[in-house]
Amino acid sequence: MSVIRPYRPSDRDDVYEICVRTGASGADATGLYSDDDLLPDIFTGPYVTYQPDLAFVVDSGDHAAGYVIGVSDSRAYADWYAREWLPAFAARYAVQDAPTEAERDMIRFGLDPSTSIVPEVADYPAHLHIDLLPELQGQGFGRALIRRMLEELRERGVPAVYLTMSPSNAAARAFYDRLGFHELPSSRPDGPALGISTSAVV
Ligand SMILES: CC(C)(COP(=O)(O)OP(=O)(O)OC[C@H]1O[C@@H](n2cnc3c(N)ncnc32)[C@H](O)[C@@H]1OP(=O)(O)O)[C@@H](O)C(=O)NCCC(=O)NCCS
């Protein structure tokens, strides 16, 4: 039986794999970039390093098969990222070595931590990422993980949370809409930004 539990350091390889296998707008991104660690080194690794107590996994018995991860203070996280995470990232990934424009764009994204900050951050201090392997999708775990994240943020006194996403991930957008996320003023068709109060009932 699958259960939701707090992240542990031993989940690190599993959460990296989940990120890759869902990283192409919800589909498998394995082999999409020269190095499969590129996506999780931006969207997973720094989060579970910076704030591991705000990460939760769906444990399928012998491995983690889904997660929600977040940071409660996105600006403080971006400062930390620039100081602590970026040097090693920049040493490992070079824009000029990337073979495709998509990979160059992704590396540029990882080189600029301010790209994860929305203009509404004062009112929506936290942000999150959620991914489930295909075998766990469509069974209510996404809703349960978001509920858990909202509870944890509320307990920390955080009023609201945002996320940014690929505009081509229509399934995820339907999920967020269903749960009651709304578009932020800065949201654009080519760069959706959604938010929700941590007191929302999802
Ligand atoms: C998007 C994702 C997190 C949703 O989690 P999930 O466990 O599959 O969704 P749930 O089963 O909890 O669904 C919750 C509600 O959203 C609805 N929903 C979920 N996916 C939907 C879809 N593709 N279309 C319409 N409604 C959808 C469900 O019907 C459900 O509504 P209900 O409870 O009223 O019936 C998950 O499918 C996933 O990880 N996908 C791949 C990675 C990804 O795209 N991550 C998001 C990146 S921004």
SSE layout and pairings?
Blueprint: E1 3-6, H1 12-21, H2 38-43, H3 45-50, E2 55-59, E3 64-71, H4 74-92, H5 101-111, E4 126-132, H6 141-155, E5 160-164, H7 170-179, E6 182-183, E7 193-197
Parallel strand pairs: 4-5
Antiparallel strand pairs: 1-2, 2-3, 3-4, 5-7, 6-7
Coenzyme A binds at residues 22, 26, 130-132, 137-143, 165, 169, 171-172, 174-175, 178.
Keywords, please?
single chain, 202 residues, alpha+beta, Aminopeptidase, 7-stranded mixed β-sheet, 18% strand, globular, binds coenzyme A
Strand order of the largest sheet: 1-2-3-4-5-7-6
What is the CATH class name? Alpha Beta
- Classify the fold: give the CATH topology: Aminopeptidase
What is the 3D shape? Answer: globular
Q: Name the hetero compounds present.
A: coenzyme A
Number of structural units classed as domains: 1
Identify the CATH architecture.
Answer: 3-Layer(aba) Sandwich
- The CATH homologous superfamily is called Gcn5-related N-acetyltransferase (GNAT)
Write a brief caption for the model.
This protein is an alpha+beta fold. The protein is built from seven helices and seven strands, in the order βαααββααβαβαββ.
Question: What features would you describe in this structure?
Answer:
The protein has 202 residues and is an alpha+beta fold. It has one domain (3-158): Gcn5-related N-acetyltransferase (GNAT) (Aminopeptidase, 3-Layer(aba) Sandwich), CATH 3.40.630.30. Helices cover 38% and strands 18% of the residues. It is globular and about 45 Å long. The two termini are 23 Å apart. Bound molecules: coenzyme A. Coenzyme A binds next to strand 4, helix 6 and helix 7. Coenzyme A (COA) binds at residues 22, 26, 130-132, 137-143, 165, 169, 171-172, 174-175, 178.
